[in-house]
Amino acid sequence: MTAAGLWGIARFLGSLALSFVLILVIWWLFLLAFPDIGPIIGRTPADVFTYLFTAPDAATNRAEICGNLRITLQDAAIGFVAGMVAATLTAALFVMSRPAAQTFMPLAMLLRSVPLVAMTPLITLVVGRGVAVVAVMGGIVVFFPALVMIMTGLANAPKQIDDVITVYGGSRLTALHRSAIPSAVPSLFSAAKVSVPGALVGATVAEWLGTNRGLGATLQQALPAAAYDELWASVLVITVASIVLYAIVGVAEALVLAQMGMQQN
Fold first, then answer.
1. Nearest to 175 by CA among 189, 147, 154
2. Are 251 and 8 in contact (CB under 8 A)?
3. What is the chain's pLDDT, residue by residue, as a tens digit (265 residues)?
4. 187: part of which helix (H) or strand (E)?
5. pTM here?
6. Domains observed in the chain
7. Cβ distance 86 to 108 under 8 Å?
8. Is the four-CA dihedral 52, 235, 14, 70 of positive or negative sign?
9. Could you tell me if residue 169 is left (phi over 0), alpha (psi between -120 and 50 degrees) or otherwise beta?
10. Alpha-carbon distance 118 to 260, whole Å?
11. Do residues 234 and 156 make contact, with C-beta atoms less than 8 angstroms apart?
């Protein structure tokens, strides 16, 4: 990778670090602006740091949080893969068949407008409370934004290449494989970057309302139990995990696009 590419990655990571610092500042200012929230309920970033690293039982607290985080990351990975695969296949179908896109795209957007929390009882009733509900709920959060972005990338393939493939007897499937998919790689990565935090949200909601495990269940149980240190620590850990996963996808995007000779969006 060139020096310019490395500098671009460094700027990207630096902007994420700055965003995280800004989140901590907003958190602290929010508690200052609404003093009635704390100190019984509200916890500052320093309080969370103490809970996780310097308190007498910090090791136990970290072990519990990290154990729940591992479950949530596994659940998020299931939803992310399910949603991205479904979005990619659906986008390819819609690009190859305009009637299918005109028929089913409005239905997809209509389903997107239904709040996920409202759909959870029905989803749980249909698929149960295991891995299936995690895949469905995480996939729903990932699917819709990824579908639009991947469709845009596939539809914007160079028409000249498609014409050449058609002249030489290639089918629509050949054009999709040889032209549309390679040109849509930036859109695939953009969809992945947007979907990673969404997959965590979907996993957390599924755990909260469906599986009763992971950080989502921790958030549900900590509030009525007045375990506010654990509650705020869980929120911070989810936030950090989202930023780190977003950064990993962003760095992978820069490396892959540089290898393919493409410019990052």
1. 154
2. no
3. 677 778 888 988 999 999 999 999 998 888 888 877 767 788 889 989 999 999 889 999 999 999 999 999 998 999 999 999 999 999 888 888 888 888 888 877 777 777 777 777 778 778 777 778 888 888 888 998 899 899 888 888 777 776 677 766 766 677 776 777 888 888 999 999 989 988 998 888 888 877 778 888 888 888 788 888 889 999 999 999 999 999 999 999 988 888 877 665 5
4. helix 185-206
5. 0.85
6. 66-252 (1.10.3720.10)
7. no
8. positive
9. left
10. 43
11. no
Sign of the four-CA dihedral 263, 199, 134, 61: positive
Residue 163, number of CB atoms within 10 A of its CB: 12
Task: Quote the CA–CA distance of 118 and 122 in Å, as a whole number.
Answer: 8
Residue type, 240: V
Asked if residue 131 lies in contact with residue 78, where contact means CB atoms within 8 angstroms, the answer is: yes
Query: In this structure, what token pair is assigned to residue 60?
Result: 């136990």
Do the beta carbons of residue 112 and residue 145 sit within 8 Å? Answer: no
Contact 244/69 with Cβ under 8 angstroms? no
How far is residue 225's CA from residue 36's CA, in Å, rounded to a whole number? 19
Whole-angstrom Cα distance, residue 26 to residue 45? 11
Q: How many CA atoms lie within 13 A of 126 on its CB side?
A: 11
CA 187 to chain CA centroid, Å, is 15
- Phi-psi domain of 263 (left: phi exceeds 0; alpha: psi -120 through 50; beta: other): beta
Look-up: residue for tokens 């996780």?
Answer: 52
